Each structure stands twice: as structure tokens, then as C-alpha cells.
Amino acid sequence: MEFESHHSESPQPTGLRYLFMTWTGRIIVINTIVYLAMGFKGGWFTPDTELLLRFGAKDSVSLAQGDYWRFFTPVFVHIGLLHYVVNNLGLYYIGFPLERLLGWRWFLAVYLIAGVVGNVSSALFNVSMSAGASGALFGLLGCGFYFERVIGQRIAESTGTKPRTGVYSSMVIVNIMFGILVPGIDNAAHLGGLLGGILTTYTMTFMRPNQLREFNPVIARRIMIVSAIVLAAAMGVATSPRFVLYRLGSQAEKSLKAFDSGRNQQRYGSEAYSYFTEALKIDPDNLEFLYQRGRLLFLSGKTNEALNEFRLPAGNAEYHQKLIILAQQLRDRGMVTWQLERLLTHTQPE
Amino acid sequence: MKIFLVSFTLLLTSSVLIASSPSNDKKEKVEGIYTISAISGKASDFYAIQMHPEKKDQPHLLLETHYVHPRLVVGLKLRVIGTVFKKSPKQSELAQALFFVNTPSGMTPFWQLSRHASALDLSTTPLMKLHAPSSDFSVL
């Protein structure tokens, strides 16, 4: 390995030298400044969605409306104290050894590219708002994991004995398991970050002279071009309003089915309502979404608000008929529906 | 004479009390063309809609609510009719408002209530929290 491998001459700095003289430390400082700024705005423990949005969290609707920088900024934003501490502690432990091994330029490249790939992956597979450095951290783990595998292979080739799986491989497995078992974790971003880290490291091994792989910048360039095309295409899909609407609509439908089946109505009703609300930010005249959101509002007792939602669908012949059926169903449940019936009487379908 | 004086004092006191008691009939109404200048989620379950008037002599308006119709967006210019329940030199806070929005179905009125509406004795339905932390955000 010739990746600035000067272990003996540069031990890990401590204190302020670590924070300001290494890029790992500087990233921790940036994360801390962003966290403090959010904290002073009231987001010490559980920042609300508006605050997260203001500080650059990943949000599918905002991406569809052109906030493309949200693929990058979530890397520095954390959701509360625990999230901030866990991610920055992780960065503190795994960051510097890799920075020393790769050099600061490649370390930053792996960290930031993995962070962006993680956010693109999150935007493709997860419609919820998300933020955090762990996509980028998974990229660093992916980098370590890759070296461990390749070096292990070289050792096996030369000695005939395969070394036992190392620390990075264990960390990757443990963290993936953790993501599967604990709800509310953006596994798509983690896996995307991991892939981004592995791919960047793999490309790097062709670009810099080293003892692992033959120097071949042509292959590296090809990988970079193909990766850039795939990433751009993925970004295009993730920011397409049609795709975001489809994802939100299908999530809402799932929650709505659970709500209609009668299990945990408060949770699934609220979830479906949130998804419809997000979808209506992109397409405020979507009659189906308005009808469904109105139905949820009506069933939760917010009659006035429900009627607002029904005003647009009521003018459409198909939805007018759906509203008549809904009124009948609600009456059968023993609900008061005179306001809805009055709206139907006063609205002439086209 | 004494009886007359006592009666007069009682009458005066009760008149003052009646005059100073809050009355629903005396709610101030406001109407005009407004532009929505901000819609902020002040907490996870309520929003503040701020509107500035087209005419300078009209007050700035604020409606704090649990619900925002998706048609109401920042920058939208529309006709607003509202009932004022709290006035300050800077702005008037609305108890309820009718927003007249141009939609594909024509001019459509949307009625929104203040989150303080239940305390203001307006005829309204129970306000229910429709907030789902699980679908609000996830942790990376």
C-alpha cells in the first residue's frame, strides 16, 4: 500500500489539533456547528420537520420541486442529540485511520460521494424526510470493508490461509442488522452509502499507484463515467414529480388499507394523511388525494376541514358519485352527514 | 332618596359590567385582497398563516390553525374574509377565515378555523391531532 501510509510518523492527534488539523475533525466541527444552530432554534432533542427542512434535510417533495442541493446537505444535519452523538462518535473512531490511509483528498471524496449516493438511494426507496451522516459513515465502513476483503484475498493467495473477517466487515454486518431491527432507520441510505464507499474506493485503487492493484487510470475513468451516468439517472428519477407522486400515493394507499381494515386506526390514518398531504404539495388539484384526505378528516371528526377537501372533487361527476356513496356509508355508521349532503346538493357535477 | 341613589348605583354598575363583557356579536370582521406571505409549521401539529394586505390601510393578518388546505401556498394572492379575535398594532389574529381560491372548478371558498376556535365558542368540530412522527422523518 502506498496510500500515504506513514503510520509511525503521524499518530492520531488529540484535542483541538484533532478537531482543526484533520478533515475528520473538521467534519465533526461542521456537524457540531449545524447541530448547535439547530439547537438554538429549538431542535436540541427532537427538531420539527420545518426546522429540518430549513437546515437541508432530505425531503422527496422538496427534491421534486427543485431543491437538488438536498442530496448533499443532509450529510451535515442531525435529528436531535442522540443522533448527533452516535454519528459523530462513529466518525471520530473510524474517520482518522482511513484519512491517514487514503490521504485527505480521497478520504473527503469517499465520505462525500458516499453521503450523496446514500441520499439518492434514500430518495429512491424512502419517501420520508431524513437526515444524518450515516450514509457517509457507511461509505467509510465500505472503504474499510473493501480493503479488508482485498488484502485478505492477497494474504490468502500468498500464504494459502484466509484471514478471519476483520473489524470493518463486522461493523458493516452489525450496523445493517441494527438498521433492520430498529424502526425509523433509513436502510436505503445506509446501503447506498456503503455501495458508494466501496465503488469510490475500488475506482481509487486503479487511479493511484499501489500494491493491491495494477495502476490503470483508463479503467478508473470508465468506472467513473458509468457511475456518473447511473447516479445522474437515479437523481433524475428521484427528483421527478411523477415518481415522487407515485411513491407517496402507493405508501398512502398501503396505510389507507391498514386504516380501513380497522387495525391501529390512529397510526395508519395519520400516516396516510401525512402521505396525502405531501403528495398534494406537488399536485394540489389531485382529486383522488383530496377525496381520500377529506375522507380521513371526516372520519376523524374534522368535518369543516373535510368539506374544504371535498369542494374540488364534488364538481367532478365521478367523484360526486363517490361522495354520495361515502355519505351513505357514513350514515350507515351512524355519523352526522348533513354538511356533506348540503355540499353535494349545492355542487353540480360537470 | 337613599333608595333612589342605591338603585342608580346598581344600575350604573350593571351597565358598565354588561358593556365590558365579551360579546360574540361585536366580533370585528375584515375583508380584502391579501397575499399569503408565510405558512410556517410553528410546531408539529399547527401552522401559522401570515397574510399581508394589498391596501396599506388594512391590517396584516395571522391565522394559527391545525389545518392548511393544499391550495394555500406562499405568494398566493386571494380574497380573504375573516373574523378578528385579537388585535395588535402589527397584525390582527383571525378566529376563522374564508379563503377564495381560484381552482379548476372556479372560485372556491375554503373555510379555515383558528386553533383557538374551540376556546372562542365558535361552532366547530373537535380538533384532532393528525400528526404521525413515524412518517415525518427517519434517522440515517
Question: Can you characterise this structure?
Answer:
Chain A has helices at 15-21, 23-43, 49-54, 60-64, 81-102, 104-125, 134-159, 167-181, 187-207, 217-238, 241-260, 265-282, 287-299, 303-310, 317-332, 338-346, and one strand at residues 129-131. With 350 residues, chain A is an all-alpha fold. In chain A, helix 7 (134-159) packs across helix 8 (167-181). The mean pLDDT of chain A is 90. Chain B has 140 residues and is α+β, with helices and mostly antiparallel strands. Chain B is 16% helix and 46% strand. Chain B has two helices and seven strands; from the N terminus they run αββββββαβ. Chain B has helices at residues 2-20, 133-136; strands at residues 28-43, 46-53, 60-65, 77-87, 91-103, 106-113, 137-139. A five-stranded mixed barrel of chain B has the order 1-2-3-5-4. In chain B, strand 1 (28-43) and strand 2 (46-53) form a beta hairpin. Chain B is elongated, with a radius of gyration of 21 Å. Chain B starts with a helix and ends with a strand. At the A-B interface, helix 3, strand 1, helix 12, helix 13 and helix 14 of A face strand 1, strand 6, helix 2 and strand 7 of B.
Portion in helices of chain B: 10-25%
The proportion of strand residues of chain B reads over 45%
Count of helical stretches of chain B: 2
Question: pLDDT below 50 for ≥5 consecutive residues: which ranges of chain A?
Answer: none
Order of helices and strands of chain A: HHHHHHEHHHHHHHHHH
The secondary-structure class of chain A comes to: mainly alpha
Please write the string of helix (H) and strand (E) elements of chain B. HEEEEEEHE
N-to-C CA distance of chain B: 84 Å
Shape of chain B: elongated
Distance between the termini of chain A: 74 Å
Oligomeric composition of the shown chains:
heterodimer
Provide the gyration radius of chain B in Å. 21 Å
Taking all Cα atoms into account, the compactness measure Rg of chain A is 25 Å
Largest sheet of chain B: 5 strands, mixed, barrel
